[in-house]
Amino acid sequence: MGSLGAILKHPDDLYPLLKLKMAARHAEKQIPSEPHWAFCYSMLHRVSRSFALVIQQLGTELRNAVCIFYLILRALDTVEDDTSIPTEVKVPILIAFHRHIYDRNWHFSCGTKDYKVLMDQFHVVSTAFLELGKGYQEAIEDITKRMGAGMAKFICKEVETIDDYDEYCHYVAGLVGLGLSKLFNASESEDLASDSLSNSTGLFLQKTNIIRDYLEDINEIPKSRMFWPREIWSKYVNKLEDLKYEENSVEAVQCLNEMVTNSLIHVDDCLKYMSALPEPAIFRFCAIPQVMAIGTLAMCYNNINVFRGVVKMRRGLTAQVIHRTKTMADVYGAFFDFSCMLKSKV
Ligand code: IN0
Predict the structure, then answer these.
(1) What pLDDT, on the 0 to 100 scale, is given for residue 202?
(2) What start-end ranges are recorded for coiled-coil regions in this protein (predicted)?
(3) Which of 116, 130, 227, 298 could lock onto 341 through a cystine, CB 3.0 to 4.6 A?
């Protein structure tokens, strides 16, 4: 079907995309005038347009804290992800990262493209961090410390069991949930959510990323990154990379389906977490990534293309999710629709 055909068949797609573009333009115009904040927001915009968009509705203080938290985590992630850094250099940086954020003179060049700019200009992020309220700073420091230590642990350790998988996802995403709950609480608009529910919310997002990014991670140069737990893939193949070869297509899809099923365990907690967020702006900020995740899982299930290229939600669908996710009823509706799609594939 041509693009006009697609639009005519789904006329709803055109309008949300247009609205998304207008909102993105509006967000760009809202970039603050102080140069260090302008840098942080334009950096955020470059690394994740939709994230930059969705945080616009938060109050200024909380929005600034979330922006800096996101950039610090991206920087930490850039160090963890860069497979060209030797282990003996990488591990000490990860472990001390929570101290580097206070040091305007600290610098470590790594990563590529936008992430290289972020690393090279990290002192600008530090400058903005030091302007946040103490409560925000302490929450960000605490999470950065625990995450860096967890990442360091997994540099030298493979993800063997499902427990390892949950532990790794806790460090890189569950802790983000705990940190955000602390930031919401520090902004005084929200009661502190339970750690267990905040953790599940992060696990659900990260497991979705790990499933979706199989090929990208396995093809990483100079060394693959492997996050799928051996306890699951060893039922289907001898080596994780074997899943990408055409002769193993049947096993690959079966393994993929088991991975998707594993991530669905967290849906219950995610819905509970979201239903307890009374502040509308915070609610939308949390709900949009969750709806995107269940949508991505529904697309990935039984889909061999996960092993051939990138499986992503279409831009029009993303735009719809952003504009239609306003209340808990919208979230239940979206989870219901994507669950029906999953069910039809099982
Ligand atoms: C996030 C999360 C995020 C947002 C809201 C509530 C959360 C509660 C618990 C845990 C994480 C929460 O959302 C972003 C969304 C995002 O960046 N999406 C990308 C899409 C993509 O493919 O990367 C985009 O371009 O829009 C998220 O994925 N993570 C994240 C990081 C920092 C913060 Cl402060 C919030 C990353 C991760 C690893 C899933 C936690």
Answers:
(1) 98
(2) none
(3) 298
